[in-house]
Amino acid sequence: MAALLVTVFSAACAVSHAAVSDSDYIKVGLKYGSSAPANLAVSSPDGLSLYRADGSNVSKASSVLDSYTFVNLKNNGSSVAVLDAGGNTITTLKGDGTECVASSRLLSSDSSVTIGGVSYRGGAMPYINSSNKMNVINYVDIEDYLRSVVSVEMSPSYELEALKAQAVAARSFILSNGNTHKSQGFSVCATTHCQVYGGVRKEDSRTDEAVKETAGKVIYYNGSPVAAYYYASSGGHTENSEDAWTTALGYLRGKADPYSSDSSWTVKITKLQLANALSSKGLGDIKSVSIDRVNDSGYAASVTVTGTKSSYTATKETIRSMFGSAYNMKSRNFTFDTEGGTITSGGGSSTVTIPESGSWYARTVNGTMKLGQTVSVVSAAGTSSAPLNGLKTVDSSGKVSEISYTPAQTVTVSGSGAATTVTFNSSSDVLIINGKGNGHGVGMSQTGAQGMAKQGFNYLDILQFYYTGIEVR
After folding, report:
1. Are 145 and 198 in contact, with CB atoms under 8 Å apart?
2. Strand 265-270's sheet: what is its strand order?
3. Which residues touch 107 (CB under 8 Å, ≥6 apart)?
4. Could you give phi then psi for residue 164, rounded to 5 degrees?
5. pLDDT of 240 over the 60 cut
6. Tell me, what DSSP letter sits at residue 206?
7. Residue 77 CB: number of other CB atoms within 10 A?
């Protein structure tokens, strides 16, 4: 299971926005940038052919490679030489992303080609990038691409309906994020930045079945394919897209998730280890760590580390990596505890402005507002405090009922539970982070999909639960 890239993109893939057909191909970056090779071995026991790639269509370009089972692609800086086993030039490719070398049976059967020692569907497409290096691209049918992706991103042992939901989510993700690596000559990469892709060796008969049974199915919201983000486990509640990243998307709304496992985890970090992890921040001697704000889904929205010289604050998804890779947090759905240090709660605040008209519906950022909690009302006339005695209800999301105050006044919500701070008393004190879930929490929880499938829900039920207001067609 893999976490996907954390920036919301709106660009559409070059593939049609209509339901995906059997002839839709994409370009998957295998080696590029610093890993771009000078030479690349390509082979197939069925023989090789040279193909022309025209958008999502592929056709045989010539018969120049028909007698070969092995060739070597060599970067010439502005073009690509195709060499035989003896190093002799057979032909030259443009290296502009319009030609690929693949099995001679590509257009008629379930064939594969070995690219740099790894077997893939489709063909090898060399692309000379802006630095005159040769990016290696796998030009492959989307459905064949998904056969590998689904089996890597979700365990093939999962229920078939969960695997089908994963297949549709992965297909939709490609259509909505297909221009992610356009400047590098391909659509998506083969890592967790996009979706993990491992070629033929990662395929499985059960995930093949899921891809086949959902062939061409895509998730749409307001007529466009969605960025169908997914992750391992929500731990009981999913997340709004804007609370994790930047953009608010209507189909990525946080909600209580009774189908996911808790996936509980604990990280322990000593004060000394914390100082080492944050040594580049210039904090001085670290004194405390605080969860400043928690959003309505229960996820940490802001965490601050305070030292004798300065402080460092991380927000949203940057929180998970703020302590470095050695102490990476699986999710932001966590609480603090300590061994040796001192833990305190309360004292934080959340400031909001009352709208110009109508009743005010407020959601505190620092915890659920409760009856009797005190707010400070600030206006041109001065500051006064008033208890929230008029509240009727507080629901699970933190939304409260009507509060009547003068429009445009600012209300600061404060009180117990607003913040949690661990203060260190010695270098051996330990910060304990107790969390639930695994991943960014936006979109489909994979353990939740499995939980729903086990309860008899089908893949459409699963997708419609995790992606708000969507249709699948």
Report:
1. no
2. 265-270, 430-435, 334-339
3. 58, 59, 60
4. -65, -40
5. yes
6. H
7. 10
- Which residue in 175, 108, 105 sits closest to 145, CA to CA? 175
Sign of CA dihedral 20, 217, 223, 316: negative
In degrees, rounded to 5, the angle at the alpha carbon of residue 297 between the alpha carbons of residues 293 and 301 is 25
Q: Which two tokens stand for residue 145?
A: 């691409």
**Contact in structure between 350 and 386 (CB atoms under 8 Å):** no
The half-sphere exposure of 137 on its side-chain side, counting CA atoms within 13 A, is: 29
Contact status, residue 79 vs residue 31, Cβ threshold 8 Å: no
Residue 425 has pLDDT above 50, yes or no: yes
What DSSP character marks residue 98?
Answer: S
- 50: enclosing H helix or E strand: strand 48-54
Alpha-carbon distance of 168 to 459, in angstroms, equals 9
Q: Summarize pLDDT for 288-333 with one digit per residue, the tens.
A: 999 988 887 889 999 999 999 999 999 999 999 999 877 889 999 9
Amino acid, res. 30: L
Question: Which one, of 188, 181, 176, lies nearest residue 148 by Cα?
Answer: 188
412, two tokens: 């600061």
Task: Indicate whether 235 pLDDT > 50.
Answer: yes
* 389-398, Cβ contacts within 8 angstroms, sequence gap of 24 or more: 394/368, 394/369, 394/370, 396/256, 397/296, 397/363, 398/296, 398/363, 398/364, 398/367, 398/368, 398/369
- Residue 418 has a pLDDT of 46
d(CA 85, CA 89): 10
For residue 87, what are the CA distances in angstroms to 95, 123, 136?
Answer: 19, 21, 20
Cα gap 346→421, rounded to integer Å: 9
From CA 334, how far away is CA 314, in angstroms rounded? 15
pLDDT band (50, 70, 90) for residue 407: very low
Tokens matching residue 10:
């709106």
User: Crossing angle of helices 160-177/142-153, nearest 10°?
Assistant: 120
The model's pLDDT over 213-233, given as tens digits with 9 standing for 90+, comes to 999 999 999 999 999 999 999
As a whole number of angstroms, the distance between CA 441 and CA 447 comes to: 12
Encoded amino acid at 186, one letter: F
235 contacts 412 by C-beta, under 8 angstroms? no
Q: Dihedral sign for Cα 413, 414, 419, 424, please.
A: positive
